[in-house]
Specification:
By secondary structure, this protein is of the alpha+beta class. The protein has four domains: 2-109, Beta-Lactamase; 142-282, PAS domain (Beta-Lactamase), CATH 3.30.450; 288-458, GAF domain (Beta-Lactamase, 2-Layer Sandwich), CATH 3.30.450; 476-520, no CATH class. It is built from 21 helices and 18 strands. It has helices at residues 2-5, 13-19, 37-42, 52-55, 67-72, 113-118, 132-139, 142-163, 167-179, 198-204, 208-211, 217-220, 227-238, 284-304, 309-324, 355-362, 371-379, 397-403, 435-475, 493-498, 510-520, and strands at 24-26, 32-35, 56-60, 77-82, 88-96, 101-108, 183-188, 193-196, 243-250, 256-267, 273-282, 328-334, 341-348, 383-385, 408-415, 418-426, 480-482, 489-491. A hairpin with a 2-residue loop joins strand 15 (408-415) and strand 16. 26% of the residues are buried.
């Protein structure tokens, strides 16, 4: 049978079996001709001479496990169940027409890492390029997934030292790195890039030809990259240590993204570091979700405080700007006639100098649809401008260019469907629009509007109470209430005075009222 196998693949058959340890091969009679070493271990009955339908049942798609049917399903994904063990397999059928043989490259279909051990499997049973374990990790929490990814990286690092003298195994390692969804960088001992996979090109926009021989930090880092994180990474690389961290990188087009990066050194037999391997996972959406949750929590904390109406907007402006890392916030309200918007409150980060831009905003009067606040007024929904310097409907564009102000966003403050004002923020970075963040800000704008409505109602109530107390004082009339369920009495201020007491000087009781009435009689 060995002779029959030769020439089936471009790889020597020994390497093919290492690359696909769970393969199945059958003839025109639908009988097994050969199977991978790992397949034989977990399914001992998958031996030559047995028919496929004796060994397996077809779960998906519907059909029969016979040669002709399988030939018609070439390149389709099949899901099989082993009759004896119940272990499920998934894979793709290929037809070796000249040899009149069928082959299916399968891998166990498992729903948890625990199932791997339950079926007597280990990491060594899987080909190094097999992504089954990675798919299982995606079902688990991020922490478990990253831990498993770390173990995979360690295994790749250990293998790299051995693969220096074994070109065939080096090709398998390259296959894994090339097909993983995470970006992979292989750099020499000095940190200069030697190789990147396709996922790196997709993530960064840079090709291998453009980055080979360059250090990643020279073109991936930007204005918002944390210098402290960069310094720590550089120190670890100089000392030949591995590390893991989160950092902001920049796409070739200038847009930022967050990555979870793990770097491990690869040493030769003498213990000398010859290469570094970095695996980067895009965690931008995770970070955006954290920002939105943090923003909502911070604003909720502000609104829960016992603030006066005049204190609400300054607190909201500083809180949102600090959470987003933006440098300028402003609050616009309609003038008494409702004809235009004018600046009412503003906040500026203490560590930036954008005075010309701030002054330009103070001089503006914006009609509906004019400028960023005007368009939010007109549409009654949030808006984002990636770069105000080139926006045709932004009257402060010249001042923004002078001060380095770039991105802007704004959202309406609404109560009962009526616009109370527009809150705007500005950044000195080219931040890309985040539709989910704009929805969050729309919700915050409604919360602020409801808070205004509540504070105004409370103020009207206080004015009414003051007027009532003053009227009772002038008429020398007092009022009291008796809660029948609790027996609690509540007196007006004038009631206290009638009984010769200062308002709220003591707790009134029904006995006091009866005694006072008896004395008067």
């Amino acid at each position: 049978m060995t002779d029959a196998k030769e020439g089936l693949t471009a790889l020597p058959w020994e390497l093919f079996e290492k690359a696909f340890p769970f393969y199945l091969m059958w003839d025109q009679a639908s009988k097994v001709v050969s199977s991978g070493a790992s397949m034989q271990r977990v399914c001992p009955d998958a031996a030559p001479g047995y028919r496929l339908d004796e060994l397996f049942t077809l779960r998906r798609p519907e059909g029969t496990l016979v040669y002709e049917w399988l030939v018609e399903r070439e390149s389709s994904l099949l899901l099989l169940d082993h009759r004896k063990s119940g272990l499920a397999f998934r894979g793709q059928v290929m037809h070796l027409g000249e040899r009149e043989l069928g082959i299916m490259l399968v891998t166990p279909w498992l729903d948890s890492v625990a199932a791997v051990e339950a079926h007597g499997l280990s990491l060594g049973d899987f080909a190094i390029h097999d992504q089954t374990l990675d798919l299982l990790h995606l079902v688990q929490a991020q922490q478990v997934a990253n831990a498993d990814l770390s173990r995979l990286t360690q295994k790749l690092v250990q293998q790299r030292a051995k693969l220096v003298e074994r070109e065939a195994e080096a090709q398998k390692l390259a296959l894994v790195a090339a097909r993983t969804a995470n970006a992979v960088i292989v750099a020499d001992a000095s940190g200069c890039i030697d190789w990147v996979n396709h996922a790196f090109i997709t993530l960064t926009g840079w090709t291998l030809e453009e980055v080979k021989g360059r250090k990643p930090g020279t073109f991936l880092q930007g204005p918002r990259t944390d210098p402290a994180v960069v310094a720590n990474m550089s120190a670890k690389l100089r000392s030949g240590q591995g590390f893991r961290t989160e950092i902001i990188n920049y796409h070739k087009d200038g847009s930022p993204y967050w990555v979870d990066i793990e770097v491990q050194p690869m040493a030769n037999d003498a213990g000398e570091v010859t290469y570094f391997m970095a695996i980067e996972a895009d965690i931008s959406e995770k970070k955006r979700q954290e920002t939105r949750r943090g923003l909502q929590a911070a604003v909720a904390t502000v609104m829960a405080k016992n603030l006066r109406r005049a204190e609400v907007i300054p607190a909201v402006l500083s809180t949102i700007a600090c959470q987003l890392g933006w440098v300028k916030g402003g609050y616009w309200t309609p003038d008494p006639s409702g004809s235009f918007l004018e600046m009412r409150d503003e906040w500026t980060a203490p560590d930036v100098d954008i005075a010309p831009f701030v002054e330009a905003g103070r001089r503006l009067r914006l009609s509906k649809g004019k400028g960023l606040p005007g368009r939010v007024w007109a549409n009654k929904t949030s808006a984002w401008i990636p770069d105000v310097r080139v926006d045709e409907n932004f009257p402060r564009a010249q001042a923004a260019a002078e001060c380095g102000v770039t991105a802007a966003l704004a959202f309406p403050v609404v109560a009962d469907g009526a616009l109370r004002g527009v809150i705007e923020f500005f950044s000195v970075f080219l931040d890309s629009p985040d539709p989910h963040l704009l929805e969050t800000l729309n919700h915050i704008g409604k919360q602020v509007g409801l808070l205004f409505k509540r504070l105004e109602a409370e103020e009207r109530l206080r004015r009414s109470e003051r007027a009532m107390n003053e009227g009772q004082r002038l008429a020398h009339l007092g009022t009291w209430e008796w809660e029948l369920k609790t027996g609690e009495l509540t007196w007006s201020d004038e009631k206290f005075r009638i009984y010769g007491r200062q308002p709220q000087q003591f707790i009134p009781t029904l006995e006091v009222v009866k005694k006072a009435s008896t004395l008067k009689m």
